[in-house]
Amino acid sequence: MPLAHPSGHAQVDFGEAIGVIGGVRQKIHFFCMDLPQSDTPFVKAYPAETTEAFLDGHVSAFAFFGGVPLSVLYDNTTLAVAKICGDGRRERTRAFTELQSHYLFQDRFGRPGKGNDKGKVEGLVKYARSNFLTPIPQAASFDDLNAMLEERCRQRRGERAGRHGETIGERLVADLEAFRDLPAVPLEPSEKRAARVSSTALVRYRGNDYSVPTAYGFRDVVVKGFVDEVVILCAGEAIARHRRCYGTGTFVFEPLHYLALIETKPNALDQAAALKDWDLPEAFQHLRHLLEARMGNRGRREFIQVLRLMEAIPMEMVASAVSEAIRLGVIGFDAVKQIALARVERRPARLDLTAYPHLPKMDVRMTAAADYAVLVPGTTA
Questions:
Q1: 51 and 138 assigned to the same domain
Q2: Are 307 and 284 in contact (CB under 8 A)?
Q3: 40-46 and 24-35 as β-strands: parallel, antiparallel, unpaired?
Q4: Is 138 among the domain residues?
Q5: CB within 8 Å of 208: residues ≥ 6 apart
Q6: Is 280 found in the same domain as 223?
Q7: Residue 237 sits in the same domain as residue 130
Q8: Cα 345 to Cα 141: distance, rounded to the nearest angstrom
Q9: Measured between alpha carbons, how far is 80 from 307 in angstroms, rounded to an integer?
Q10: What is the dihedral of CA 58, 61, 62, 68, to 10 degrees?
Q11: Are 173 and 266 within one domain?
């Protein structure tokens, strides 16, 4: 049946392809939004077809087009449909309801198992796989791959589709005139789940464990899963941020989360799993050797205090302060802290007397036994 497509409407679907991302050959899932009236495409790739990818695809597509379609046609993906009722009604998922209520577009669904109900976007999936993702794309990251895909979508506007005499870009004007305006603030494209912190300060999300500061053990938290990030909140405050892991059974640690506990248990410094793969500059190990050689176990505790400076000061500044303390021969937590604070405040470190030429220089020499002769009556120095 020949179909007519009015302006201002869209269709959405996901496709799959193979790509090499960061040197790793893997399956990629790409989100497609097609405007049937003008055949204007939008394509964006993700590591997995997840709720957050579904939301992010819409947010990115609306920003790409500069407006919101009047309606969007879907298949009955579980990302949007929680249940198909007997009368044909759909119960929407919570995430999809948030998306729809934020952008105020009408949702439409094809018949179950009838992909031809949204033939335009089905055609876009095949076109994108054959033209945008063939030969197998290679990119350093998904961001780089998506920058390429967005550019290809823009280039497509200068081409013609089907038997139309006008270019896709020329026909797009009618779609954009029918679109609704974007809301003032875009939707935060994340999946939200309630969770609880374990006794080892870990929170499980989608088969992986992410660390939080040990002070939040046994607390109830909310996990926000983004495409490339996991954010953990407690009482509305973000207490941890991690790069998203798409494996399973992986422990994702932030070493700084455990330093407060390790400070009370300094013997655990070398066995803590959270610190096992921590790539610290060589200066830190040099400082630890000097501290422990001078103070023993107390030196280890001071070294942990130096590491804790990175809870508030960037690693690069602390590492620079450690190197400077070693150069000046002031081996201790207080010295490193003073130098680091001086760098943060952009002032000279008070430990370096060259910055204070008006102060008298002290000449301290070793005491000799003969110096005490002046204390004995009848003797002279």
A1: yes
A2: yes
A3: antiparallel
A4: yes
A5: 245, 247, 248, 249, 250, 251, 252
A6: no
A7: no
A8: 36
A9: 46
A10: -80
A11: no
Cα–Cα–Cα angle for 216, 220, 225, rounded to 5 degrees: 95
On whether both 229 and 282 belong to a single domain, the answer is no
315 and 263 share a domain?
yes
Among 149, 178, 207, the domain-final residue is 178
Is residue 19 located within the same domain as residue 57? yes
Report the CATH number that the domain containing residue 132 is assigned in CATH. 3.30.420.10
Determine the structural domain holding residue 282 and report its residue range. 258-355
Whether residue 41 contacts residue 33, with contact meaning beta carbons closer than 8 Å, is answered with: yes
Signed CA dihedral, 334, 339, 344, 345: sign only: positive
32 burial via Cβ count (<10 Å: 0-12, 13-18, 19+): buried
Is residue 153 one of the residues assigned to a domain? yes
Q: Which helix (H) or strand (E) holds 251?
A: strand 251-252
**Number of folded domains that form the chain:** 3
User: Is 221:196 a contact under the CB 8 Å cutoff?
Assistant: yes
Residue-by-residue pLDDT tens, the chain, 381 positions: 666 779 999 999 999 999 999 999 999 999 999 999 999 999 999 999 999 999 999 999 999 999 999 999 999 899 999 998 877 789 999 999 999 999 999 999 987 766 566 889 999 999 999 999 999 999 999 999 999 999 999 999 999 988 888 999 999 999 999 999 999 999 999 999 999 999 999 999 999 999 999 999 999 999 999 999 999 999 999 999 999 999 999 999 999 999 999 999 999 999 999 999 899 999 999 999 999 998 888 999 999 999 999 999 999 999 999 999 999 888 999 999 999 999 998 887 776 556 556 556 666 677 777 777 777 777 655
Residue at a domain's end among 252, 274, 298: 252
Judgement on whether residues 96 and 123 belong to the same structural domain of the protein: yes
User: What are the tokens at 331?
Assistant: 């081996």
**How long a stretch of residues is the chain?**
381
